[in-house]
Specification:
alpha+beta, Thrombin, subunit H, six-stranded antiparallel barrel, 5 helices, elongated
Amino acid sequence: MLVIFRWIRNQAYPLLYVLLLLSAVTQIFRYHFYQHSIYFGHALGIHRSIDVWKSGITSYFKLRTTNEQLVKENGLLRNQLNWNLTSNSPKGASTYKDTFTNTLIKYEYIPARVIRNSVNEQNNFIVLDRGYKDGIKKHMSVICPMGIVGVVVESAAHYSLVMSVLNSKFEITPYFYNLKISQGVISWDGDDPSYVELEEVNRFVKLKNGMKLYTSNYSLLFPAGIPIGTIEKSESNLKSNFYSIKVKLATDFSQLDVVTVIKNIHQNELDVLNQIIPTQEGGAND
């Protein structure tokens, strides 16, 4: 201890200089707008570079899992193609058609990679490595090979912020494929990132555990037929007109890597209508 005190005493002036210098620099960056903006811009750039670097390393070790997911996604996309080209799909006049099949095309798909993701907060968000220069804008839906992921809430030049399904403000009405109906509201209770709650489903609906839930034709954000999850547990109460349902999500949010951002070609028309129809502030509804 005496050696340490002796060293501090001998280095008192240099240490005092360093402390005063750090204090001065801190005050400059804190109370001077120009210096603060420069520091913030550089710090944000470094932070994003670290996120990209970490994402690259993580993606390398997940290549096998990613390939397996992409194989499964091909099957899901084939099913979705059949879904959207049958009587399930919304009808409407459009001149935007596939020149080979002469069928209506309503969506464009933009690939992206997750560089930041949280699953343990009450309101979780995801950061993607694509922004408005890549065609991504607010209110676009995001999916992965297994199912729905969330909705874009902000878009910068090269990055986008996505409200995850694991967010208390996210809501969506599912489609019961076996029953051919759309009913209820899915939301996350902030507990287990593998499960969500399904509420407002009439208890006279004949539910069974294991039923698959998908996005419906009535969704303004998601195409029809995207997997949401599977009913794992349902309970009815004579004192209530609705079920209490637990749904296991199709998407494993702890393993998110490659995602797809979906652009609705008719989004401008929907935005005009949404300005007329009042919605709950702050929510991401389907």
